[in-house]
Amino acid sequence: MLDRSIGEFSRFIVIALGTTIVGITTGHWWLALCAGLAVYLIWVLLQQSRFDRWLANGRRGPAPTSFGVWGDISDDFYRLQRRHRKEKQKLHAMLRRVQDSTSALREGIVALEDEGNLAWWNPAAGQMLRLQSDDAGQPLVNFVRDPRFVDHVHQRMLGQDNDSREPITLPAPGDDTRILQMEVTRFGRDEALVIVRDVTRLHNLEQMRRDFVANVSHELRTPLTVIAGYLETLTGSGQAPRNWERPLTQMSEQTVRMTSLVNDLLLLARLETSERDSGRDRVSVRELMERVAGEARSLSGDRHQISVSCEEDCTITGDAGELHSAFANLALNAVKYSPDGGPIELRWNTDDSGGHYSVADSGIGIDSLHIPRLTERFYRVDAGRSRESGGTGLGLAIVKHVLLRHNANMSVASTPGQGSTFTLNFPPHKITAASSA
């Protein structure tokens, strides 16, 4: 750039000296100098005008041929234009490859911009959501009107939603026989990507499994009731042979265990198949904790030190029976897996993130490897010990589904040999101060 400035200055000096010499020979050096500089200025302005017109026309074609500094500028622009054209071709080629690859995907991909408006989608998304080419620029929620999805998209676009939230499963627009799973991921400032999957087959298989478990569990109730009745009669009549006492006692215990398992399966099936609305009961936390503590003391038989700590009495909006089941499962598990004489504490506290119910025990503890799988059906950390305690392996699965229906979640902190703390976290909109209630 310095060399160009020096060159242009040298050119200016040469023109000034040349016109001055001509002016001296003619006797009008001042007039000749002004005329030479005027011609130079007009020449520079003419080149600038040509360059400005080229810029105004969108830089179509090569830059205009110029001399001097404007020629250097034109050459630079030409080189930049060629470089830009090559980069643009590379970007177009890359974009075509991305579009071709996404078009081959079975999953639908929708790109959103400007607060949820449709920017682009692949053929799979267009087929699943019934989108047409002229729908670009319209809000996606105009085509997927499920209230849960609408709320999810708005929160994601505003950056208020939790990234750990599970994908939303809902019927396909205009076709209730197809089930779609939709997941929204925000990127950039006002952009988001929606992944759409057809999970109809998995949904039908899961529904068949639920129906099968519910039907079989319901059918088992009647024969179990009959067996339990006859066993109670034989045991209580005193007419059974002495050598039958032990077998009858074991049969009664296993019948009770089987009945408990069937009841848990029916409860779990009901939680899975019923609507996600968790009810509108206002449940007093203090009363619920005292009732659960009484059940835990009854199961313990004074073998444990069970205490209740409730910092502030609140009410939880939800289903009273389901909440009791979740609270009681954690407390009874603590009794089953804690050694005799060990302390068990039921705590409740509130903060800005909501209400928190914790059960802390001094039991055997849980290795971190097992914690992610605790809410799976029939999953046991120690199968032998679980069978001895009479557990069905469904307690934490029931707790998980109760929490899903109350927009809550569970966290676990545990150290092997030092006990565990299970915490149920309820959102603020589910919690009301007892005085307000």
From TrEMBL:
Reactions it catalyzes: ATP + protein L-histidine = ADP + protein N-phospho-L-histidine
Annotated Pfam families: HATPase_c, HisKA, PAS, PhoR
CDD domains according to UniProt: HisKA (cd00082), PAS (cd00130)
Leading EC class: transferase
Listed transmembrane segments: 12-43
Annotated Histidine kinase domain residues: 215-430
Location(s) in or outside the cell: Cell membrane
Main location: membrane
Taxonomy, superkingdom: Bacteria
InterPro entries, per database record: BphY/WalK/GraS-like, HATPase_C_sf, HATPase_dom, His_kinase_dom, HisK_dim/P_dom, HisK_dim/P_sf, PAS, PAS-like_dom_sf
Gene3D superfamilies: 1.10.287.130, Histidine kinase-like ATPase, C-terminal domain, PAS domain
Protein keywords: ATP-binding, Cell membrane, Kinase, Membrane, Nucleotide-binding, Phosphate transport, Phosphoprotein, Transferase, Transmembrane, Transmembrane helix, Transport, Two-component regulatory system
MF terms (GO), sorted A to Z: protein histidine kinase activity
Enzyme Commission number(s) of this protein: 2.7.13.3
Protein task: Member of the two-component regulatory system PhoR/PhoB involved in the phosphate regulon genes expression. PhoR may function as a membrane-associated protein kinase that phosphorylates PhoB in response to environmental signals.
Protein name, UniProt field: Phosphate regulon sensor protein PhoR
Lineage, broadest ranks: Bacteria, Pseudomonadati, Pseudomonadota, Gammaproteobacteria, Cellvibrionales
Gene: phoR
